[in-house]
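Hey, I'm writing a tutorial for new members on how sequence and structure tokens pair up, and I'd like a real worked example in the thread rather than a made-up one. If someone can provide the structure for the chain below, I'll link this post from the tutorial.
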Amino acid sequence: MLENCKSAQERWGGVSSLIDNWLQERQEMLVCFCALGEINDFNSDNTVHGEKLKSFCEILVDYASAGHFEIYDQLVKEGQELKDNSGLEVADNLFQTIDATTEIILDFNDKYLETDDLKTLANDLSGLGESLATRLGAEDKMIEVLHTNHREKILSSN
């Protein structure tokens, strides 16, 4: 999609739009997460609880997948094209942090796709929340290092 753009601004401006859409999806995921957090006593007989959980799991996995299969690749390509070796090195370390949180996300999703037992959900949400905070911080840093810091270079290349 973005490879067909002619100028750096066209190409990396497209990455900006891709990132903006992904961050909007992040916002939706966090809203769903907070809605689950507002439930004081999870009850598997309450269909609303199950629906909220299913909706959250879907957007959570979609968000994580988009990061891995779209966003991170585009950020690395930008860093490589602009020969930002120090940014790529920082990103490599951030990937390790993100990968660890991906396992937690997938484990959470798998667990709650397989069970209607919501007794441990509040505790699992707490742990997931900590992992998400770590992940979002790493993603924000990656965007800063491999995209935001390049803005002036991209604009001046035209």
